[in-house]
Amino acid sequence: MKIISSRFGEIEINEDLIIEFPEGILGFQAFKKFIILTKDENQLFWFLHSVENSDLMFIITNPYFILSDYTFDMSEEDCKTLLLDGNNSKELSIFTITKVDNKKNFFINLKAPLCINFNKKIGKQIILYNYNYSHQYKINAAAKDGITDKISKNTQQKSEYSVSIKTDQSKD
Questions:
Q1: Which of 49, 108, 124, 167 would disulfide-bridge 96, Cβ 3.0–4.6 Å?
Q2: Which domains, ranges and CATH numbers included, belong to the chain?
Q3: What is the tens place of the pLDDT at every residue in 70-102?
Q4: Model pTM score
């Protein structure tokens, strides 16, 4: 299957890698189908790209690269939505949406993580009302520098669920 990306041009994707977010993503509930794109095997960020809208793409990261003690509980309803077998969190991958400001500061949204069950190809954004996490947690330079070894340990699992995009297809 081919999709068009306003950022990367035409991309060939494997339909089996499409992740459905039945409730959409906050502010973009009309769009339910996404694919994870990657430009590099050992990276801190991925692109969660809508299959239905060529302009809709989020930069995402694994929050545990930045904050190793990040934790939260999921409701039974959330577990059902994500089709988790017996509340087994090992089936679940957690990502956060990343924002970059005009000064090139990076922020992650710890208040509303993206939870993805790659085995079932289903995801959900969970709003953590009862937790004191920020929706604009700043990633400082020291944290970015210390993340490199965490990336190489954790990206192997995710790479089989993402589509690699070639740099020459990218638009600047």
A1: 108
A2: 2-163 (2.30.290.10)
A3: 999 988 899 899 998 765 667 789 999 999 888
A4: 0.83
